[in-house]
Write a structure and sequence with these properties.
Elements: H1 9-28, H2 32-58, E1 62-67, E2 70-75, E3 81-86, E4 92-97, E5 100-102, E6 114-116, E7 125-131, E8 134-140, E9 147-148, E10 152-153, H3 173-183
Antiparallel strand pairs: 1-2, 1-6, 2-3, 4-5, 4-7, 7-8, 8-9, 8-10
Length: about 190
Amino acid sequence: MRRIRGFTLLEIMLVLLLLGVTSGLVMLSFPADEKALARQGERLNHWLNALAERAEREGVSYGVAFGSGGWRSVAATGQERREEYALPDGIALWLSVEGQTVALDDAAERPPQVWLYPGGETTAFSVALSQGRCLWRLQAPGYFVFETTDIRCDDAENETPAGHDAAGSDGGVDDLRHRLSGTDQQHRRPGA
């Protein structure tokens, strides 16, 4: 009589354990900054789309005041404050309006820099959120289309021991201004 050979239960369990440990190590290698930044970026994108739809539906212009720690909306009728959102600690916000970088401070004290009009137009602007070495960007070319980029995190292979990348950038304000100016177009998602 022939004996049929196969895998034992112990061998199958050992393989599953090794696959689980390996997949856990792979998931830990992705930066946690990327997840939090993606969540905040998507929140801003959905918030702007909802505000643009509200402007069109109600026939009222809405302004958005961006600050270093978040943003707020203002209705053009009477300038009453509508909604505010504060960013979590560790996430920085950068704004460029019509190609010019805007210095940001407290959004509660600032008049709106961006307007969403009922006819479908918007101020041309770009917003970047950064956390650690990761950057997410949203651009509005001047009508109710908000284009977002995938999150980009600087690669460790581009670093020199002094903490600068190969191009000599320190990843600071000037580097973000360069990225906001639109020179970093190759990572834009089409149709987003």
